[in-house]
Amino acid sequence: MVLKLDKQKVMDPVMNSEEKQTQRLEAFSDGVFAIAITLLILEIKVPGAEELKNEKLGSYLLHQWPKYFAYIFSFGVLGIYWTNHHYLYKLYRRTDHWFNMLNVLFLMTIAFLPFPSAILGEYIHEPEQFGTSVRFYALGIAMPAVVWLASWLYASHNKRLIDHRLSDDFIRLLTRQFILSNLLYLVAILLSFYYPGASLALIIFLNILYILPPKKPIYQ
């Protein structure tokens, strides 16, 4: 009994250290997500008296529909990324320096997303600027997916950082899913040069798919 307790004392600091590593990284990520989501609403401004000299408030508010769309959709995108980020971190058991750096890069792309969202909301209703705004938005949404894939490939390689009990088939399934998402985002970017409306529709469709609950982990 004494030997068993002593062994547990030896092992607990290691387990707690790994748990703290992932929890600390997830907490930092949550903070960045919260700030990025908050920044989205800042693009919807209250009109001043000068702006309403030749227009009624109700009409002004209705004309802001592109910004409402960009806000609601981008809020959903960030929410989906946050939900899946939380899901994926249940599969990780520890971190290391390079994984931390990849996560920082991922958070940089998340913090950047309000900018292309603001561009889309400002120019989506202008025919001359519509294509460029969609291309920029498609690129902005694709960047987190690219880093997401890189992080997963790094962590899952030889089960470097993930739970060793996860089945190989489940790991391959997630890998294929993340690769397919990146390929479809690439298609959306290329499509935006010729058919920006179709590109935006594809982006919306992809994010609707990710609203569905993720697959439950399968263990060996």
Summary of the model, kept short:
The protein is an all-alpha fold. The protein has one domain.
Describe the structure in your own words:
The chain is an all-alpha fold and 220 residues long. It has one domain. Helices cover 75% and strands 0% of the residues. It contains eight helices and no strands. Helix 1 runs parallel beside helix 4, helix 4 runs antiparallel to helix 6 and helix 6 runs parallel beside helix 8. The radius of gyration is 21 Å and the shape is elongated. The chain starts with a helix and ends in an 11-residue tail after the last helix.
Keywords for this entry:
8 helices; 75% helix; 0% strand; disordered N terminus
List the helices and strands and how they pair.
Blueprint lengths: L1 H40 L15 H7 L1 H24 L8 H16 L1 H10 L3 H30 L11 H24 L4 H14 L11
Helix pairs in contact: 1-3, 1-4, 1-5, 3-5, 4-6, 5-6, 6-7, 6-8, 7-8
Structural class: mainly alpha
Quickly count the helices.
Answer: 8
Percentage of β-strand residues = under 5%
Low-confidence stretches: 1-16
- On the 0 to 100 scale, the average pLDDT is 89
> What count of domains describes the coordinates?
1
Number of strands: 0
Shape call: elongated
Strand and helix order: HHHHHHHH
Please give the alpha-carbon distance between the first and last residues.
31 Å
Largest sheet: none
